[in-house]
Amino acid sequence: MKKQLPNAKHKLQADPRLRFNWGYHDGAGDVQHRRRVRSMTDHYGKIYAQGYEFGTEDAKNDAYTGDSEAAWKSRTSLRQAPWMPRRHR
∠ at Cα 50 (45, 56), nearest 5°? Predict the structure, then answer.
């Protein structure tokens, strides 16, 4: 019997790091190109939305370097903090 490989769509849905990365760069790009910053309050992709918010904040604070690794580490370490705003959990 031939082994079936998971389809690409399923893999992308299962990779939170990748979705965070997309959101991070999209958010930073919106700020850098002076596009309207979108509200992520009701976004269906929670992790993408978190990346977007981290990216917009980094770009606004001139901390955007084109690498989302520091933001990802910050997100994963702060995710459990009870004082963290709900939008970042």
Answer: 125
Contact 36, 30 (CB under 8 A): yes
Supply the DSSP string of 14-47, one letter for each residue: T-HHHHHHHHHHHHHHHHHTTPPPPP-TT-S-HH
Q: Rg of the Cα trace of the chain? A: 15
pLDDT beyond 50 at 72: yes
Render pLDDT for 30-43 as a digit per residue (tens, 0 to 9). Answer: 999 999 999 999 99
- Residue 55: give the domain boundaries: 16-77
* 33 domain-assigned: yes
CA angle 44, 78, 28 (to 5 degrees): 55
pLDDT beyond 50 at 84: no
Domain tally for the chain?
1
